[in-house]
Amino acid sequence: QVQLVESGGGLVQPGGSLRLSCAVSGSIFGINAMGWYRQRPGKTRELVATIVGGSSPPNYADFVGGRFTMSRDNAKNTWHLQMNSLKSEDTAVYYCNAILRPGPSTTTFRYWGQGTQVTVSA
Length: 122
What we know:
Blueprint (H helix, E strand, L loop, with lengths): L2 E5 L2 E3 L5 E8 L4 E10 L6 E7 L6 E2 L7 E6 L4 E6 L8 E10 L7 E4 L3 E5 L2
């Protein structure tokens, strides 16, 4: 069974850094797109960063403002979100997301990680 397993997150002071990771658990044939979303308290889920295709650079939401960097390790089917200069308004549950091809056909499915809490507070 294919799953996305997140790690990282936690409590950090304003201006600090955190690194989130997401790994595909299970056998797949390919990853069409991967990304990070977040849901702040009382808000709807919003896109943070995404990579579409095999070699495209990441696209970031405007609020990232150069503070976050998304990277991927194709050999390990993992991707990361390095978050620097964190602000209190970055407090949210962060979810990784991917559109995967679990089998040899072109059929794809969207998967979500379990979510990890990021709290930015003094």
